[in-house]
Design brief:
Elements lengths: L1 E6 L4 H16 L6 E5 L6 H8 L10 E4 L4 E4 L6 H21 L3 E5 L4
Parallel strand pairs: 1-2, 1-5
Antiparallel strand pairs: 3-4
Length: 113
């Protein structure tokens, strides 16, 4: 298994959270290291979407049903839509890596202390 933490590079809160997460993991005796992974940030979302071919179709208001999957998608209030998209893109990158390399991954946020 590969344990990975998504960290916003240069963000004091995120960097501190990652440090505490690593310390906590060691303190409870986990037998794995947590690898740092630099998050996709809001300023990089548009480029990532273009390169990856991903199309954002989650609603900003109300809810919709994705008829292909049956998934009900409900809007999530956020002050910064690009930040929400960046978070999703970061997770997608790691899910994609896990699936395409057949690697089991534990994907953590920096504040998973």
């Amino acid at each position: 298994m590969k344990a990975v933490s998504i960290v916003i590079k240069g963000n004091e809160v995120s960097e501190l959270g990652y440090s505490r997460l690593v310390e906590s993991s060691k303190a409870v005796g986990n037998d794995f290291d947590i690898v740092r992974w630099d998050a996709i940030t809001p300023d990089r979302v548009d480029d990532f979407m273009e390169i990856s071919g991903i199309k954002w179709n989650y609603p900003w208001e109300g809810e919709v049903v994705d008829f292909a999957t049956g998934l009900k998608k409900s809007a999530y209030k956020t002050a910064n839509p690009k930040a929400r998209m960046a978070c999703a893109c970061s997770h997608y990158c790691l899910w994609h890596e896990s699936a395409t390399t057949d690697t089991t991954m534990l994907i953590l946020e920096h504040d998973a202390y």
